[in-house]
Specification:
By secondary structure, this protein is an alpha/beta fold. The chain contains 16 helices and 13 strands. It has two domains: 121 residues, Alpha-Beta Complex (Aspartate Aminotransferase, domain 1), CATH 3.90.1150; 199 residues, Type I PLP-dependent aspartate aminotransferase-like (Major domain) (Aspartate Aminotransferase, domain 2, 3-Layer(aba) Sandwich), CATH 3.40.640. Strands 2-8-7-6-5-3-4 form a seven-stranded mixed sheet, sandwiched between helices. Strands 9-10-13-12 form a four-stranded antiparallel sheet, with helices on one face. Helix 2 packs across helix 12. The radius of gyration is 21 Å and the shape is globular. It holds the Pfam family Beta_elim_lyase. Belongs to the threonine aldolase family. This is Aromatic amino acid beta-eliminating lyase/threonine aldolase.
Length: 365
């Protein structure tokens, strides 16, 4: 008996994938490296012409005195919180209950650094000023993720960020920015990266998410902070002999995609409107505040998944490669806009959404 194709399989074969930039394959690295001289010397254990000028440019971009390149954001952020914890003489740090450190890192912060997280806000909204002001226990550091990925890329108002920053400085609490998708948030806030980062004592950015590089991250802050982070980077095994494939791909794709962040943001709003016109479907947030959002359906996964598979096969438009269950019996998936969206044939896209609407409407009756 022939097995039915999975959602992932039909998405990978779709003529028009809707989300992201392109397939994550070796071509991503080949394209980046093709623009560099093959005689360019690699970095060696954190030094050299590839890594040092890049770190300086990142520090300037983020408005900080210094920056350090890391192979992963998981490593960089655990180290940042450890440094602030040691400096304050407190094991307690505060962040959102759906923070990456809390749900995706196998309790690395607790097992490796013995830090004790205080969870702020709830799982439906970002951390707000009242959450920070209302903390009942003193903490060494507050971490804010902008935008908050696990709730559809929601953002708090900029004015509240300013107030949170002022409160933390008044109370001697360090404020750390999980800026994995920092550049995607800037069009909504209407400020430059250095202005936003000036509210924070330390900043992490990723190079493989919205920017589409291979991997890697930067941790930025005051000179003493970044120098201490280098010690912890060595302790974590992150001081690899060479990181140039990550650095050069980061540089290459930053130059191409940072100018497009406003475009991705507006395209996300356009796409969300198509979803919200479909029966049983809503987006979170309803009007995206970055290039990403979540698609929620009242239909359970076992009902919606075969509908998505059929519509993808019949129209060629890849809506998503994965569908997740919701606690209320519905289902959801994440959408992140990149280079692909601008190339889609828009009238055919609208036809695909009309078909999706018809199928989910019939399933709900």
């Amino acid at each position: 008996m022939k097995l039915l194709p999975t959602l992932s399989e039909v998405y990978n074969q779709a003529s028009y994938p809707i989300t992201g930039h392109a397939k994550r394959n070796v071509q991503v690295l080949k394209e980046a490296l093709a623009s560099y001289d093959g005689e360019l010397d690699s970095d060696v254990y954190g030094s050299g012409a590839v890594i040092e000028p890049f770190q300086e440019r990142m520090a300037k971009l983020l408005g900080k005195p210094a920056a350090v390149f890391f192979p992963s954001g998981t490593m960089a952020q655990q180290i940042a919180l450890r440094i602030w914890s040691d400096g304050a003489g407190s094991k307690k740090v505060a962040y959102h209950p759906l923070c990456h450190l809390e749900i995706h890192e196998k309790d690395g912060l607790k097992e490796l650094h013995h830090l004790e997280p205080i969870l702020l806000a709830d799982t439906t909204r970002p951390v707000r000023l009242a959450d920070v002001v209302g903390m009942e226990e003193p903490v060494a550091c507050v971490l804010l993720e902008l935008p908050q990925r696990e709730i559809g890329g929601q953002l708090p108002p900029y004015e509240e960020l300013v107030e949170i920053s002022a409160h933390c400085r008044e109370k001697g609490i360090k404020l750390h920015l999980d800026g994995a998708r920092l550049f995607e948030a800037l069009p909504y806030y209407g400020v430059a990266a250095d202005e936003l980062c000036s509210l924070f004592d330390s900043v992490y950015i990723s190079f493989y998410k919205g920017l589409g590089g291979i991997a890697g991250a930067v941790l930025a802050g005051e000179y003493d902070f970044t120098e201490e982070s280098k010690v912890w980077k060595r302790r974590h095994g992150g001081d690899l002999i060479s990181l140039y494939p990550y650095i050069l791909s980061a540089e290459y794709y930053m130059e191409r995609r940072m100018p497009r962040m406003a475009q991705y943001y507006h395209e996300a709003q356009e796409l969300a409107a198509l979803y919200n016109a479909c029966s049983t479907i809503t987006t979170v947030p309803q009007v995206p505040v970055s290039n990403m959002f979540h698609v929620h359906s009242a239909l359970p996964k076992e009902v919606l998944e075969p509908i998505l598979i059929a519509v993808i096969e019949e129209t060629g438009f890849g809506f998503t490669h994965v569908l997740r269950d919701k606690d209320d019996g519905g289902s959801y998936y994440e959408v992140s806009i990149g280079d692909r969206y601008a190339e889609l044939p828009k009238e055919k896209l609208r036809d695909a959404f009309r078909m999706l609407d018809e199928r989910v409407r019939a399933a709900a009756e």
